[in-house]
Amino acid sequence: MQNDKFGAPQELVFVPPSQQPPGYPQPGYPQPGYPQPGYPQPPQQGYPAPSYGQPQMTPAHTYGGPPPPPPQPPRDPPTRVEGPREGCCSFNQRNKPQGNALGTAGLIFASGGMNIAWAIGFRGPIAYHTTKHNFIAWFIGAIIGAVLTCGLTNKVPKKIVLQFSSVLVIIGGLVIACTHQNGSGTIAACYLDGIANGLVFAPFMALAAELSVAYKRGIFATSMEQVSFGVGILLQIIYTSSWSYNTYTAYNDFTADNMKGVLSTIFGFLALIMGTFMTIESPVLMLANNDEAGAVDALRRLQKPAVMTDETYEQLAEHKRYLAENKSMTLGQSISQALPTFLRLAYLRALNAMSLSSFVIFTLALSIFLSYGLSSSQGWYIGFAFCRWLGTLFTSFCSDSLGRKKPTLVGLLVAACLSFAVGGRYGFGNYMDGVTILLLFFAFFAGIAFTPSSAYVSEAYPLGVKQHFISLTFIVEMFVFLIIQVCDFNLRQGYNYFYIMGGMYVGGFVIALVSLPETRLLTMRGAQEQFSRLLNVRF
């Protein structure tokens, strides 16, 4: 029965190929003229042949002229790095060996901070004849050590320098601890401790930049120097202010000076022991001496666990680029690039010395005596030291997050205003009402202002002259301390000092605003490039 809906089936007729008309489909697959799957097709008539591996161009791309050239890859990797993505505790633990290698020098700087505080006025009763030589001996010794370390640059391993300096600190501390009211022994001990600090300063400030990863360089440099000096100053002020004095103690018993000798000896022994086992030489200098295996081993030991990672290899490659860039500079080019940086940083460090001078301490003691009486001086002295140390500590922890430039500007501006305020309130007629409080705030903001200078000093100068110019910067700071110590403070016209200091702080604020760069999260190449510019107005 047929299906009426579809009709009768049609009969299929086979047509031989020879009788098929042109264009009739041939049996088999694929048919001629039809695209074959999986194979590039020949160009059709009227269309350009496709160029395989290149982007297809349409009239919209070529309208109005030829297409722009593709972007070229950068010649060098970027100088700005990303911060760590893991938690704070994780990357702190991983980079702990870097802090340990630098912290040994911080122990010597803590001993130096005690001697600075002793020289500017925080000392117990002295029963021997003194001259100004007693109070400037440490600064002269620091200058001598900084000059000597210029001749030892890259010739003596930093571990040897640290060990020798630690021995000097130990000897100086023992001299003070074992003698009693001996002026000559005190001068000799100050010289030894000062030379030790001068010897260590330049090599380890340079090492701070060469050992640290870019996102930890700020905190390592600042905590090694400014925080350590602040700890020494705080310790000296705490125990000298809390010491009970009487005639018998002053002449026969264990004195505050003996205590300073004991603490210096302890710091020296700790620095000697820890430095012997924890100090790691600079991988940059190892690469400069064609010791790549030593550089790789140093970078491996600078992290926990001590294994090579992608970050380690990237740091090695960055050190090679930094070294190659500095090797291409002649000595004259390095000096000409370092001089403008030296003028900026030396001025900043000179302002730091002015904020801790004996003139400031004399004004603090006078304001406490006139306003509160000697019975309450202990708490005010400790408060002054604590405020200075707290400002330093706060800025040190923020140097890799907030940066270097912003704390410097804020600290300089507020310290300048407070300095003018102290000068305005200075006078015996009003009993210096409020000067003590102003000086405590001044100490806090001065600590904020000058702590980032440690990071700047460690990363600013070209490699060929880095340690020499770091030493010169330190010498300028010590020379300012020395000049102020030699000068006599006029109690009736002491306001002039604060007016001058306030004006210089305003000048420092302007210089920092227009010329100091922000080097947070920059490699050493990037920091050096930023300092090579005279104008840096970006934050």
For the sheet with most strands, the description reads:
none
> Which CATH architecture is right?
Up-down Bundle
Overall 3D shape: globular
Structural class: mainly alpha
The number of helical runs is 21
According to DSSP, the number of beta strands is 0
Number of separate domains = 1
Structural notes for this entry:
The structure is a single chain. With 539 residues, the chain is mainly alpha-helical. It has a single domain (100-281, 329-531), classed as MFS general substrate transporter like domains (Growth Hormone, Chain: A), CATH 1.20.1250. The protein is 65% helix and 0% strand. It contains 21 helices and no strands. Mean pLDDT is 86; it is low at 1-14, 46-55 and 59-65.
Helices and strands in order:
Layout: H1 59-62, H2 88-94, H3 96-120, H4 132-151, H5 158-178, H6 183-211, H7 217-242, H8 247-252, H9 256-278, H10 283-288, H11 292-301, H12 310-327, H13 331-355, H14 358-371, H15 377-398, H16 405-425, H17 435-450, H18 452-459, H19 466-486, H20 495-515, H21 524-531
Helix pairs in contact: 3-4, 3-5, 3-6, 3-7, 3-9, 4-6, 4-19, 5-6, 5-9, 6-7, 6-18, 6-19, 7-15, 7-18, 11-12, 13-17, 13-19, 13-20, 15-17, 16-17, 16-20
